[in-house]
Amino acid sequence: MENNYLFEGEPLSKETCFKHLYITFKLHLATDPDKNEKFRLLTEYMINENIVGAVKNSKGKVVFFYNKNLITKREFYCLLANVYVRFFGTSLAMKMYVSIGCALFDHDIKELRSIYVTMRRYRYKEPPELYTKYF
User: Fold this and answer.
1) How many distinct structural domains can be found in the chain?
2) For residue 90, which phi and psi values (nearest 5 degrees)?
3) Domain span holding position 68
C-alpha cells in the first residue's frame, strides 16, 4: 500500500481524492455522527497534507497511494489499524476493511493475508502523534 509516486496516470485533485476515499467508508459510520465527523476530519487532513493521494490510471481506475516521504510504512499500518479499531471495529470485519483497502490502493490480493496479519499486530498500538487528535 505504499508509493513513491511511480503510479502512472492523471493526479486527482484533493477534493476528488477526499470524496472517493471518504464515500467508500462513510456508510459504515452512518449510525455514529461523532465517529463519522472524526473520520471525515482525519481523511481531509491526510489528503490536504499530501500523506495520501490518488491518480486515475489509463483504464479509468482510481488508485490511492501513501507518501512514504511523509509517513513510514510502520506508521501507515499503525494508522490503518487504529482507524479500523476506533472507527470500524463494530461495523465492519477487519478482513473486509483490508479487502477494501487493497482495492483502493491497487494492492495485489495475494498479499491480503500478510496485510491482515500486519494490521492485527498494530491494532492496539498508539497511532503516530500527528493523528491522535482524530481519535
Assistant:
1) 1
2) -100, -10
3) 10-125
- Give a yes or no: residue 132 inside a domain: no
Look at residue 3 and tell me if it is in a domain: no
Is the distance from CB of 29 to CB of 39 less than 8 angstroms? yes
Domain presence at residue 1: no
Whether this model's pTM surpasses 0.70: yes
Question: Is 107 within a domain?
Answer: yes
Question: What count of other Cβ atoms lies within 10 Å of the Cβ of residue 17?
Answer: 23
Q: Cβ(79)–Cβ(39) under 8 Å?
A: no
pLDDT in tens, the chain (135 residues): 444 445 578 999 999 999 999 999 988 988 899 999 999 999 999 999 999 999 998 888 899 999 999 999 999 999 999 999 999 998 899 999 999 998 898 876 667 888 889 888 998 888 899 999 998
Q: Which residues pair with 53 in a beta bridge?
A: 65
- DSSP characters for 45-109? HHHHTTSEEEEE-TTS-EEEEEBTTTS-HHHHHHHHHHHIIIIITTTS-HHHHHHHHHHHTT--G
